Amino acid sequence: MHAYRSHTCADLTEKNVGDNIRLSGWVHRVRDHGGVLFIDLRDHYGMTQVLCDPDSPVFNEVEKVRSEWCIRIDGTVKAREAALVNTKISTGKIEVFIKDLEVLGSAEELPLMVFGDQEYPEETRLKYRYLDLRREKLQKNMKLRSDVIASIRKRMWDRGFREFQTPIITSSSPEGARDFLVPSRLHPGKFYALPQAPQQFKQLIMVSGYDKYFQIAPCFRDEDPRADRSPTDFYQLDLEMSFVEQQDIFDTIQPVITGIFEEFGGGQKVDESWQQISYRDAALWYGSDKPDLRNPIKMQTVSSHFKGSGFAIFAKLLEQVGTEIRAIPAPTGGSRKFCDRMNAFAQKEGLPGMGYIFWRDQGEGMEAAGPLAKNIGPERTEAIREQLGLGVGDAAFFLGGKPKVFEAVAGRARNAIGEELGITEHDRFAFAWIVDFPIYEKDDETGNIDFEHNPFSMPQGGMEALKGDPLKVLGYQYDLACNGYELLSGAIRNHRPEIMFKAFEIAGYGRDEVEKRFGGMVNAFQYGAPPHGGCAAGIDRIVMLLANEANIREVIMFPMNQRAEDLMMAAPSEPINEQMRELSLRVIQGE
Asked: How far apart are CA 532 and CA 82, in angstroms?
């Protein structure tokens, strides 16, 4: 017999009754039923109930074991009585009578219990992550993550892609976040960087003639942590293709993503048709470039109904250049109590409140109620109702100012209204392509033009587009939104050096600076670069959605905490003096 086990803790069935077997695993729970000791023995695969009574030669040893001890047992498989069958586990029709026991690893007093659903502080969970990872939910999440990645790889190979690895130690590249820098021992005073993404390398792979590339790529960004983003490292499905247009990328990746969500989505509906929504429309309708389309509410501009109206706050606001009034329709939200709740929501978001109108039946017809209705009068109120397509029992909320200032709050209010009114679906994965991103933006304080989004995207219209108003230039850039999260981002690349130099010139970057910062890629483009494009999908975020988790740390095996610390391994740590001398570094203490 094998030294540790003849079966896993998920293998044994009624067919094994009478067999002498060997199991190894962790003591999940110990129960004493009148002198008979029952142990739920757990391994990675499942659970088996083992038991011992005073007739067993190792009864005294079994009495000593405690939760999370790692043990090996030899025993005989027995059938459970019909009334004692546990249908929740695969081994629920049998149990094992213990004849021999070996303690493989005893456990000290536990800082957190693996058995049960008790909540523990995140700091405790991360410091003792190896215990946390034994818990059923995390075991399930990590298996899911592994299975998703395996499925992605197979699907990409089936679509004619090959996987190539790109360097981890490279040069600094602006990707919208801070780099993690690595000092060079051989070149004192110089630094490598961990890649924020394989962006330049995957484009160089296309220049090298490989046509279709993908990689499950580790990426490193020194970012502030959020619930849906790791503060240090993450993994993405990275892909690039040559001789393609934007729609080719969509047609390639959509079946892969759809297949993953159908395979691992637990039976939830997966949208077959993915809308294409412009960046500007997404901001207008949803207040976000990653809208949750499970919520059917679309916001609208209603500025014309408030110009010169009796509601002085909005009327005066609209006299300023670049301001708008937007409405958030709220079907079935037509009660003062609900409107007051949403007004309180706006105040929690830092606003004075949200104006509102709600429509009610007064017996002799419909009446518009609320402070706004009284101030702007029945004619304007009726025009708003008709524009929004609302009726009795409905409401609308209003926000005003410069859109970039209030859009995000409006988007959160839209989400809150959808949840409060129960019109947001919860058994569906709703996807949408967000397209036509503006390449440039103007700094309101300095008036300077800079890149608003990916500087390597091909401008729509090519060189001709760059000769006009920069703020009207759109890029062949796209994101994929799902249920309020950005799952994927990509672009058709700017592969023509003359267009790239012009694009950077508009943003204030001279040719010399471009060549210095992106010399490898710019030089390569001088030697017959093909048209190419691609995208990257966040593995962690995809698994987070599939696992129905709200925090990305629940699907990462060894995540950092909110301060980008590894409490388990005590990182970051101070280097020893010898390491600092080898790297020609010294620490300057901050004030």
From this structure: 64
